[in-house]
Amino acid sequence: MSNKYVIMIHGGAGNIKEMDDEKKAKYHKSLEIILKKSSQILQEGASSLEAVTLAVKLLEDDELYNAGKGSVLNHKGEFSMDASIMDGKNLMSGAVAGISKIKNPVMLAKKVLEESEHVMLISNEAMDFAKQFDLEAKENSYFETEYRRKQFEEALKSNKVVLDHSSFDKKGIQGDEKKYGTVGAVAVDKDGNIAAATSTGGIVNKKFGRVGDSPIVGSGVYADNETAAVSSTGYGEQFIRTVIAKHLADLIAMKGLNLVDAMNESIEYLTKKVSGLGGMISVTKDYKYASNYNTPGMIHGVASSEGGINTSLEKPLNA
Ligand code: ASP
After folding, report:
1. Is 202 inside any structural domain?
2. DSSP 3-state assignment of 143?
3. pLDDT over 90 (residue 174)
4. Is residue 233 in a domain?
5. Quick one: which atom of ligand 1 is closest to the CA of 220?
């Protein structure tokens, strides 16, 4: 056991450059508070699994992000949230997709990891599974915000499925709107165990039970003590097709890359292979951390025993 720990969190990749200073300050403040609380429990000896759960729960509770309260609306004007969590010690994973009315989807994903023999539960049956636990339930009105309702109505009008990041399309950044969202956390605890968790409302105006990468092991989330813990944010379909989180881990395992090089090479692969848009955060068991993205920014930050708290919207963080 050492006295070291690292926790890194994100609140979505996107067109940060267009955000006004007041909003930027809000994000910095929010990230700082959440990093403070989640690193505090790591410092007191909590596991990385507990720390990423707490961090993602707090991100879900903050309506600034597209996860839990503040989630985007699907084509029916309803909430359909996805979340996942993975323990790098033993590759145990839990995920839920297409759920609503559960205040903290990440806590249900953790129950799937701990209390079921399965990895992923979906929709109404996942919510039935939730009933046996003491998880807080909420009505739709709790999740809804005026901003998301407006965003949804605009998407409906233009008949578009919109990523909750920024109004970019496959050709690049379009620019005028400012949408950010999906949340995630990766951590390494004093025992050198790593974990990752991701949570999202998905993409605005999504149809037909669409599920993105966030609950998919190897794409939106991954953790293996031997390689890295990863949480992704971006256009989910592209992250699923490239199995991007596992891709990063494989670059470490098979090519012997260090974390920063593996992170940079993965973002390059995402860009070249499928014109993918988004970013990732990652830690390893030897207390290294790295982030990168190919959007103009990613809302993220890190807290570590060595370096304190550092939040960033516009530059990758690594050490
Ligand atoms: N990856 C999420 C999804 O496709 C969206 C996001 O990161 O904002 O559902």
Report:
1. yes
2. helix
3. no
4. yes
5. 1
Predicted confidence (pLDDT) at residue 161 exceeds the cutoff of 80: no
Do 55 and 42 meet the contact criterion of CB atoms below 8 Å apart? Answer: no
185 C-alpha vs ligand 1 centroid, how far in Å?
14
Residue 202 Cβ contacting ligand 1 at under 6 Å: yes
Residue by residue, what is the 3-state secondary structure of 175-238? CCCECCCCEEEEEECCCCCEEEEEEECCCECCCCCCCCCCCCECCCEEECCCCCEEEEEECHHH
pLDDT of residue 168: 42
How many structural domains compose the chain? 1
Quick: pLDDT tens for 24-73. 999 999 999 999 999 999 999 999 999 999 999 999 999 999 999 999 99
Report the distance separating Cα 227 and Cα 291, nearest Å. Answer: 15
Would you say the CB of residue 181 lies under 6 angstroms from ligand 1? yes
- pLDDT band for position 177 (50/70/90)? very low
Host domain of residue 156: 6-312
Atom of ligand 1 nearest to the CA of 235: 4
Is the pTM higher than 0.85? The answer reads yes
Looking at residue 90, which CATH number applies to its domain? 3.60.20.30
Residue nearest to atom 4 of ligand 1 (CA): 236
pLDDT band at 162 (very low <50, low <70, confident <90, very high): low
Residue 317 lies in a domain: no
Domain presence at residue 318: no
Task: Please name the residue whose Cα sits nearest to atom 9 of ligand 1.
Answer: 202
Q: Is 182 a catalytic residue?
A: yes
Options 53, 145, 182, 233, the catalytic residue: 182
